[in-house]
Amino acid sequence: MQTKPMSTGALAGVRVIDASRVLGGPFCGQILGDHGADVIKVEPPMGDETRAWGPPFVGDAASYFIGVNRNKRDVPIDMTQPLGQELLLRLLEDADVFIENFKIGTLEKWGLGGDALRKRFPRLVHCRISGFGADGPYGGQPGYDAAVQAMTGLMSVNGEPQGEPLRMGVPIIDMVTGMNGVIGILLALQERNRSGEGQFVEATLYDSGVSMLHPHLPNFYLNGKVPQRSGNRHPNICPYDAFETRTVPLFLAVGNNRQFVTLCKVLGKPGLSVDERFVTNASRNLHRDALREELVGLLSQRDGLQVSQELVAAGVPCGPVRTIDQVVDDPHTHHRGMIVDIDDYRGTGAPVKLSRTPASYRSRPPAFAQHTDEVLKEQGIDPAAYESVLPRKPVV
Fold first, then answer.
1. 304 in Cβ contact with 248 (< 8 Å)
2. Which pick of 46, 69, 366, 376 has the fewest CB atoms within 10 Å?
3. Three-state helix/strand/coil letters over the chain
4. Is 341 a known active-site residue?
5. Which one is catalytic: 74, 174, 207, 241?
């Protein structure tokens, strides 16, 4: 067996077979790849459906696919056929991690369920991304981000007080589920260093959605009141809200009494901070509307960017409400390495920074079947022996 391709990242030498599709699983695989793992993406014959989730497109892939599939090598396999299942098993022989989000029961139907994989590959860390898990009242049901946002209550607390529940503008549950998958995989790899054994890792959209309900769940546990939508206002902190200025909207995130005193000084009305209605966070919460009216009057004729700079310099957390293009153009975004350019590929950088083994961006997202021959030959596998289960272009 040939050695695995090496990188300099924290996960150099770790091989990952990523047989997941859509978002949570592929995002999980990309994070591992960014940090040095050799990630082999196994696609179904028709391709990962996000290749078609556009426009915009580049080549055979939409931006949706491109955003979560860099640093991977691509080998499509028709695993509905026994020969394709055999090929997957051969790829797993020297793998450390297996990521999949097959419909619950599919792997078991193929004889590749968790028990079978553990028996055959005792060191393998098997990570399953699913909507609700395999059992329980919702066990085995398919899950998509927006539907699970609705089911877990996230939509119920998102939106204006008098408006309808709103889906969040990003697939937050998918992304967090992918991150939770990474956390689980790293925990299992760490434990394997002690025991020598792999284990099953599960990350579900439902669990991830429920886990994000802070502070709404703790509030409910304590006072029994069902949380309601509050727009941009924070349910526990005041002032923590968006305000119009003469130029751009400004978000104030005042987290303690000292910051509130400073805010009042910078805005030219220090007496507000000693008003008995506003002295503490608890009292400010009781008089939210009156405080907002005061702040609206103080900010309405101010330049939003200028007052934001003054407040930040004084130690008050705040920021202008910006559009996506403004974020991309911001020099700090580039300084932090959050924009990645590889030839004609542009992507979003890794948010986790390591001092000695930083993330690296070695390859752009793969074309369909781009690395089939390379990967199989590296494994000592003759591609010709499996040609009938190796689609060379998506089966539409």
1. yes
2. 46
3. CCCCCCCCCCCCCCEEEEECCCCHHHHHHHHHHHCCCEEEECCCCCCCHHHHCCCCEECCEEHHHHCCCCCEEECCCCCCCHHHHHHHHHHHCCCCEEEECCCCCHHHHCCCCHHHHHHHCCCCEEEEEECCCCCCCCCCCCCCHHHHHHHCCCHHHCCCCCCCCCCCCCCHHHHHHHHHHHHHHHHHHHHHHHHCCCCEEEEEHHHHHHHCCCCHHHHHHHHCCCCCCCCCCCCCCCCEEEECCCCCCEEEECCCHHHHHHHHHHCCCHHHHHCCCCCCHHHHHHCHHHHHHHHHHHHCCCCHHHHHHHHHHHCCCEEECCCHHHHHHCHHHHHCCCEEEECCEEEECCCCCCCCCCCCCCCCCCCCCCCHHHHHHHCCCCHHHHHHHCCCCCCC
4. no
5. 174
pLDDT digits over 203-247, tens only? Answer: 999 999 999 999 999 999 999 999 999 999 999 999 999 999 999
CB 78 within 8 A of CB 44: yes
Of 178, 183, 176, nearest in space to 212 by CA? 176
In total, the chain counts a number of residues equal to 396
Using a 10 angstrom Cβ sphere, with 0-12 exposed, 13-18 middle and 19 or more buried, the burial of residue 17 is buried
User: What is the pTM for the complete model shown?
Assistant: 0.94
- Relative to beta strand 318-320, strand 250-253 is antiparallel
The type of residue at 307 is V
Q: Which residue has the tokens 């030959």?
A: 377
For residue 104, what are the CA distances in angstroms to 1, 130, 136, 173, 360?
32, 8, 13, 19, 34
Task: Of 332, 340, 331, give the one whose Cα is nearest residue 358.
Answer: 340
Contact between residue 44 and residue 79 where contact means Cβ atoms under 8 Å apart: yes
